[in-house]
Specification:
By secondary structure, this protein is of the alpha+beta class. The protein folds into two domains: 138 residues, Alpha-Beta Complex (Penicillin-binding protein 2a (Domain 2)); 449 residues, 3-Layer(aba) Sandwich (Beta-lactamase). It contains 20 helices and 28 strands. Strands 2, 3, 4, 5, 10, 18 and 19 form a seven-stranded mixed sheet that branches. A hairpin with a 4-residue loop joins strand 11 and strand 12.
């Protein structure tokens, strides 16, 4: 009986253990089937099916009006399935054929098609003819898959903004790089059924998973305004219209901003490159100097000094100032550009004449603390945050080490180092009623279906001066263009405000003679600014108003016309008239000015007189090199046309009238080499 009970217990224990084992097995089977089933199925299919990736088309980059600036075009890529190539036994033959068609080294091709990998690309983005030839040969283990290549339909237009992509269609520079995530789509795949030996199963299943195109990035750049700016840069770099003593500028940039929003309508730099073939370009041409290069701004910076002085009420527009031709600061003589000085003048005339001692006086009245307050408030010494890689922050003198002499030179635009994007942003704050905005390059981002996923948002940095101060500053700067050193940017019928700038270049810690950075910044219409234009030209033998003024004039005029901004009937028709606080009568009888550029003086006078215009002559020479108003301009009948005379070929490049007309140069005596405090002033080393 005892033995039976013991046996019974053993059977029960055994059955219990078997039951537990079966229960665990059932649970495990359930987990595998229900929880892990889909995963294991996908894993098996991945082993069973091999996919050839299909690259997605990169999203388009368009201008603010939807014009395509960058797009993807169809291309094809050759790939190999090494297991199939090896199984065919024709490795050498296949390598020879592909090397000849693809113009590759045979050894390189052989290595690729026989690698111990499931899939290997032989060559990407091949010509259509080569792809068709390879398809027709039906080589074992060799296939063609759809691919795409980046294409820039406008060539070098906006190249520094757009950037370019690499062989794998990845963004390397510009917007292509900064918006890589949004522009890159989702890849697709061509799935083919393979056996355990790694070869394709004849008659096996196939599946195509289409790729998803990337999003469209709409820029604030206006293709037409960008083209206008680049047209003027090309003329400038070719030396057209200027006798540069056999030299052309080292580089130049033109920026156009909408001051009320911070939208950049154009960022053009020269020399430039074609992003379709960026590998062939010198790397230096790919540098976005408008964002990455710093320079001493010269008199264009006087706008900031003026605005600060007006805001702090340390000057009055009608107060008198006497300019003896120099200012003595800490025993050093800082001279005015005009020998003997301007004598007695109002503060408005100080600005019109770009009088150095007058601006030094403004800086001294502001004092170090208040001057630096506005220097930093306007955004100097820090990045603007524009969506471009490699932006420089410029260099400002260390306040703790700055002296009264530094304050004097900073007040007139020397010593400190700024970037073009910083300067146009700061000046646009004056044009925008005293509110500083972040410069913007991306207007919006949309999906392939047209849904906006990133809308435009104007970003206010802060108010830097009051609206009243901004309005007064604009009126005075308008007077600079009408009556003062900025007359080369005058536009008949439009109210233009602006300032010239000429700065000596700093190389190796020393100012060099005979070579300047010429610049001009202007906005229009002065009473309701729609555009701010900045031109910076590096490496010219004479002054900002002479070189950069006409470029600003051309860009501004064509851009205003393109935007449909009509002339103001109350705006002046010729420079040299009183402007400050004066209204002008509307045009009563319009007449079109004939162009007399390049004509001998006598012939030009005859043409204009016959058309009913009066003639005023500026400069010396036998031929007309410029005229205001320009040819084809509509003005009031009987108006005066100013003819600027210049040298014939072989004569001296700079006629005396240039220096008399626009002598906007900051020359400092007895100072020796000028080195910005706490910095290396070599311009080549400024970008981060």
């Amino acid at each position: 009986m005892v033995q039976i009970l013991k046996m019974h217990k053993r059977i029960v224990l055994l059955l219990s253990l078997c039951s537990i084992f079966l229960l665990v097995l059932i649970i495990r089977l359930g987990i595998v089937q229900l929880r892990d089933g889909p995963f294991l199925k996908d894993l098996a299919e991945e082993e069973h099916f091999r996919g050839v990736p299909v690259a997605p088309k990169r999203g388009n980059i368009v201008d603010c009006n939807g014009n395509i600036l960058a797009m993807d075009i169809s291309a094809e890529t050759v790939y190999a399935v090494p297991a199939e190539v090896r199984k065919s036994g024709r490795q050498e033959e296949i390598a020879t054929i592909l090397a000849e068609i693809l113009q590759m080294d045979k050894a390189d091709v052989l290595e690729r098609i026989t690698k111990r990998t499931s899939l290997e690309y032989v060559k990407k983005k091949i010509p259509a003819e080569a792809a068709e030839k390879i398809k027709s040969l039906n080589l074992p283990g060799i296939g063609i898959v759809e691919d795409s290549a980046r294409f820039y339909p406008n060539g070098s237009l906006a190249a520094h903004v757009l950037g370019f992509t690499g062989i794998d269609n990845q963004g390397l520079e510009g917007i292509e790089h900064s918006r890589e995530k949004e522009l890159t789509g989702l890849p697709g795949s061509v799935l083919t059924e393979y056996g355990a030996d790694g070869t394709k199963i004849p008659g096996g299943n196939h599946e195509y998973i289409p790729p998803v195109q990337g999003n469209t990035v709409k820029l604030t750049i206006d293709k037409n305004i960008q083209a206008i700016a680049e047209r003027e840069l090309a003329k400038l770099m070719a030396g057209q219209g200027l006798n540069m003593e056999g030299r052309t500028p080292k580089n130049a940039s033109i920026l156009v901003m909408e001051p009320s929003t911070g939208r950049m309508l154009a960022i053009a730099s020269a020399p430039t490159f074609d992003p379709n073939n960026y590998q062939a370009a010198d790397p230096s041409t790919r540098r976005n100097i408008a964002i990455q290069n710093g320079y001493e701004p010269g008199s264009t910076f006087k706008i900031i000094t003026l605005a600060a002085a007006l805001e702090e009420k340390v000057i009055k527009t009608n107060e008198m100032f006497h300019d003896p031709g120099h200012a003595i600061i800490l025993g050093k003589r800082v001279r005015c550009w005009k020998a003997g000085g301007h004598g007695s003048q109002t503060m408005v005339q100080v600005v019109e004449n770009s009088c150095n001692p007058g601006f030094i006086e403004m800086g001294q009245r502001l004092g170090m603390d208040r001057f630096y307050k506005y220097l930093t408030a306007f955004g100097f010494g820090k990045k603007t945050g524009i969506e471009m890689s490699g932006e420089a922050k410029g260099i400002i003198a260390d306040k703790k080490r700055a002296t009264a002499l530094d304050l004097a030179t900073m007040s007139m635009g020397q010593t400190n180092n700024v970037t073009p994007i910083q300067l146009i942003t700061a000046v646009s704050a004056v044009a925008n009623g005293g509110v500083l905005l972040k410069p913007q390059l991306v207007q919006e981002i949309t999906t392939p279906d047209g849904d906006v996923i990133v809308p435009f948002r104007k970003e206010v940095v802060g108010r830097v001066i009051s609206e009243e101060t901004a309005k007064l500053t604009c009126e005075i700067l308008e007077s600079v263009v009408t009556n003062g050193t900025g007359r080369r940017a005058f536009l008949p019928g439009y109210r233009v405000a602006g300032k010239t700038g000429t700065a000596q270049k700093v190389v190796g810690g020393k100012y060099i003679q005979g070579e300047y950075i010429a610049s001009f910044v202007a906005f229009a219409p002065a009473n309701d600014p729609k555009l701010t234009v900045l031109v910076v030209i590096d490496g010219v033998p004479f002054y900002g108003g002479v070189v950069a003024g006409p470029v600003v004039q051309a860009v501004m005029l064509d851009s205003l016309k393109y935007l449909g901004i009509k002339p103001d009937p109350n705006a002046p028709l010729a420079p040299g008239k009183p402007m400050y606080g004066v209204e002008y009568p509307p045009v009563k009888k319009p007449a079109v000015v004939p162009s007399v550029l390049g004509q001998p003086l006598a012939e030009a006078q005859k043409t204009l007189t016959a058309a009913g215009f009066k003639v005023m002559i500026e400069g010396q020479g036998s031929n007309v090199i410029d005229q205001i108003p320009h040819g084809e301009a509509t003005v009031e009948a009987g108006s005066t046309v100013i003819l600027y005379l210049g040298p014939e070929a072989g004569e001296p490049a700079i006629a005396p009238w240039y220096q008399e007309y626009d002598p906007d140069i900051e020359a400092i005596e007895s100072l020796g080499p000028r080195i910005p405090l706490g910095s290396n002033p070599n311009l080549a080393d400024l970008a981060p």
